[in-house]
Amino acid sequence: MIIREANMEDIPQLRKIYLDSRRESFHWANSDEMSLDDFDRDTSEEQILLAEEDGQVLGFASLYVPDRFIHNLFVHPTAAGKGAGKLLLQQSVEELGTPVTLKCVSDNHKALGFYKKQGWQPVVEEGEPGARYWVMKFEK
Fold it and tell me: Is the pTM of this model over 0.70?
């Protein structure tokens, strides 16, 4: 598996991963309101890294470099458990330097457990009821 910077040819696969992953795991959100276009809006002006194996994109991370912030990290549901998320997270930290932050929806217990296992620390829970998230931080 390799981690590399995304290019324009990767966008269709990345859009599908973003849509499929959110529909699969965002049980608190209305999946009917999600679309392929969400990827374009939600990653605007961000550096995008992707995990690829045998020519197939398994997942991606979008980084907002000025704030050392990992905005999105998604792995396609069919690729879960293959290590793509861990490698994307590690490469994101390498790209951004430390300390680095991300936000994780409070109701996404699986993702919260994943980040904690990788050494991330929850700092503060923010947001309004029904839209709460944890700000998480990683330092070497």
Answer: yes
